[in-house]
C-alpha cells in the first residue's frame, strides 16, 4: 500500500511538472507579444511627446511661419499672426490628430507583426493537409505550436502507413484464402464426380470418398466464415456490456470447448486457478478473447506438448496466462502480432492461421475492459498474458 501511494505521488508530481512545462512554453510566446506591445506603446508615447516638445512648441511654429512666407508670399509678421490664430489656438486638435495617426500606424505595425504568426500556423496546417513529409518550422517563440504540429504530422503519417499496411495485408489474405478455397472445392468436385460416374463403387471406397468430401466441405465452410470475419471486423465497432463475471468458470467453459481440438493435435491442457476470480466485464467478449488465444495455441503447439492456462488474483487485477510449447516467435514479430490481418505463418498454408484477426480482436476487447495483453516467446515457450482490472470490493 505504501509503495502504491508513493507511485501515485510521483505520478501526480509528473503531471504537475508536465503542466508546468507546458505553461512555461506558452509563457515565452505570451512574453514575446507583451514585449512587442509594450515597445510599441513606448515608441508611440515617445513620438507624441517628441512632436509636442521639440516640434510643436519650438521649431514647428517657425516652420509654419516660414512655409507661409515662402509659398504664399505673406510677410513674416502676418504669417506669425495666422499661425497664432489658426494653428496655435487649435493646437489641442492638431495634437490629438497626431496622437491618433501615430497610434494607428503603430497598431497597424503590431497587427502586421502578429499576423505573421497566423501565417506560420496556417502554413503548418497546409503542410499537414498536403503529402509533404518535411518537418514544420516556426519562429522560436512558437516552439510549443511547432512541436504539436510536428507531432500531429507524425501521428497522421503513422496512421496512414498503418492503414496502408493493414489494407495490403487484408488484400494478400483475401487472395490467399481465395486460392486456398480452390483446393478443397476441387477435391469435393472430383470425389462427387467419381461417385456420380461410378455408381457401383465398393461401399468402403464410397464411404472413404464421402468422408473426404465432408472434411473438405467443413474446411471450405471455415474459410467462408473467415471471409465474413474480415467483413464484420471492418464494418462493425466492438462494444462491451460489462457485468459481474466469475472468470474462473468462464475459463473452465472455454477450455472444455477446446479439449477436442487439442486432443486432435495430440496436446493436453492443464488449468491452474483458484475460485472465484471476480471481474467486471462482458462475458461473451471475454470468452472470445480466450477462445482466440486457445485457437492460436492449438495451431502453433508442437504435437504431444502441454498447453498451460493459469489465472491469479492480485489486489488490483486478475492475470491470466496461456502458454504453449513450439516454435518461438522472433522478437521483431512480437510487436506486429496484434495487428489486424497479420498471420505468423508466412507460407499462408491452410492448416495453420486464420484471418489474422483473432489476436487483433482480442487486444481491442481487452483494451475496452481497461486491461492489457502482451506476449513473450523464448526457450521454446510462448506465453500470452492478459491483465484485467479486478472487481471493486
Number of strands: 7
CATH topology of the largest domain: Heat Shock Protein 90
Compressed to H and E, one letter per element, the order equals: HHHHHEHEEHEEHHEE
As a percent range, the share of strand residues is: 5-15%
Largest β sheet strand count, sense and barrel closure? 5 strands, mixed
CATH homology superfamily of the largest domain: Histidine kinase-like ATPase, C-terminal domain
Domains counted in the coordinates: how many?
A: 3
Number of helices: 9
Amino- and carboxy-terminal Cα gap: 16 Å
Let me know the average pLDDT.
77
CATH first level of the largest domain: Alpha Beta
The percent of residues in helical segments reads: 55-70%
Q: State Rg.
A: 39 Å
As laid out across the biggest beta sheet, the strand order is 2-4-5-7-6
Overall SS class = alpha+beta
Low-pLDDT parts are: 1-22, 346-352
Provide key terms for this protein.
393 residues; alpha+beta; Helix Hairpins; Heat Shock Protein 90; 3 domains; five-stranded mixed sheet; two-stranded antiparallel ribbon
Gist of the model:
The chain is an alpha+beta fold and 393 residues long. It contains nine helices and seven strands.
Chain-wise SSE layout:
Elements (H helix, E strand, L loop, with lengths): L1 H71 L3 H12 L3 H39 L13 H55 L5 H33 L7 E4 H18 L3 E5 L5 E4 L1 H18 L5 E8 L3 E9 L5 H4 L23 H11 L3 E7 L2 E9 L4
Parallel strand pairs: 2-4
Antiparallel strand pairs: 1-3, 4-5, 5-7, 6-7
Amino acid at each position: 500500500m505504501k509503495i502504491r501511494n508513493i507511485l501515485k505521488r510521483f505520478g501526480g508530481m509528473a503531471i504537475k511538472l508536465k503542466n508546468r512545462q507546458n505553461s512555461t512554453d506558452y509563457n515565452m510566446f505570451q512574453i514575446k507579444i507583451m514585449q512587442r506591445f509594450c515597445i510599441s506603446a513606448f515608441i508611440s508615447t515617445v513620438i507624441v511627446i517628441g512632436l509636442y516638445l521639440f516640434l510643436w512648441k519650438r521649431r514647428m511654429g517657425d516652420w509654419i511661419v516660414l512655409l507661409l512666407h515662402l509659398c504664399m508670399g505673406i510677410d513674416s509678421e502676418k504669417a506669425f499672426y495666422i499661425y497664432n490664430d489658426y494653428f496655435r489656438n487649435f493646437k489641442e486638435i492638431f495634437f490629438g490628430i497626431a496622437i491618433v495617426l501615430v497610434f494607428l500606424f503603430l497598431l497597424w505595425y503590431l497587427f502586421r507583426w502578429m499576423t505573421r504568426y497566423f501565417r506560420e500556423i496556417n502554413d503548418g496546417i497546409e503542410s499537414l493537409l498536403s503529402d509533404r513529409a518535411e518537418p514544420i518550422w516556426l519562429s522560436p517563440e512558437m516552439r510549443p505550436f511547432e512541436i504539436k504540429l510536428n507531432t500531429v504530422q507524425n501521428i497522421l503519417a503513422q496512421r496512414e502507413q498503418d492503414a496502408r499496411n493493414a489494407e495490403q495485408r487484408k488484400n494478400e489474405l483475401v487472395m490467399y484464402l481465395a486460392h486456398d478455397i480452390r483446393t478443397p472445392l476441387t477435391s469435393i468436385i472430383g470425389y462427387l464426380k467419381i461417385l456420380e460416374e461410378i455408381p457401383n463403387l465398393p461401399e468402403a471406397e464410397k464411404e472413404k470418398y464421402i468422408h473426404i468430401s465432408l472434411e473438405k466441405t467443413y474446411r471450405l465452410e471455415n474459410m467462408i466464415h473467415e471471409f465474413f470475419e474480415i467483413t464484420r471486423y471492418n464494418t462493425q465497432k466492438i462494444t462491451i456490456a460489462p457485468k459481474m463475471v466469475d472468470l474462473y468458470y468462464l475459463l473452465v467453459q472455454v477450455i472444455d470447448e477446446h479439449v477436442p481440438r487439442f486432443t486432435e493435435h495430440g496436446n493436453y491442457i492443464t488449468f491452474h486457478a483458484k475460485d472465484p476470480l471476480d471481474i467486471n466485464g462482458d462475458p461473451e467478449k471475454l470468452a472470445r478473447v480466450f477462445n482466440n488465444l486457445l485457437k492460436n495455441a492449438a495451431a502453433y503447439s508442437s504435437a504431444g506438448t502441454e498447453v498451460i492456462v493459469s489465472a491469479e488474483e492480485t489486489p488490483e487485477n486478475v492475470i491470466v496466462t496461456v502458454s504453449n510449447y513450439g516454435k518461438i516467435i522472433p522478437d521483431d514479430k512480437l510487436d506486429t502480432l496484434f495487428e489486424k490481418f497479420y498471420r505468423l505463418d508466412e507460407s499462408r498454408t491452410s492448416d495453420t492461421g486464420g484471418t489474422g484477426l483473432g489476436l487483433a480482436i482480442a487486444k481491442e476487447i481487452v483494451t475496452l475492459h481497461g486491461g492489457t495483453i502482451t506476449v513473450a516467446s523464448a526457450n521454446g515457450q510462448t506465453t500470452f498474458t492478459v491483465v484485467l482490472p479486478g472487481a471493486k470490493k
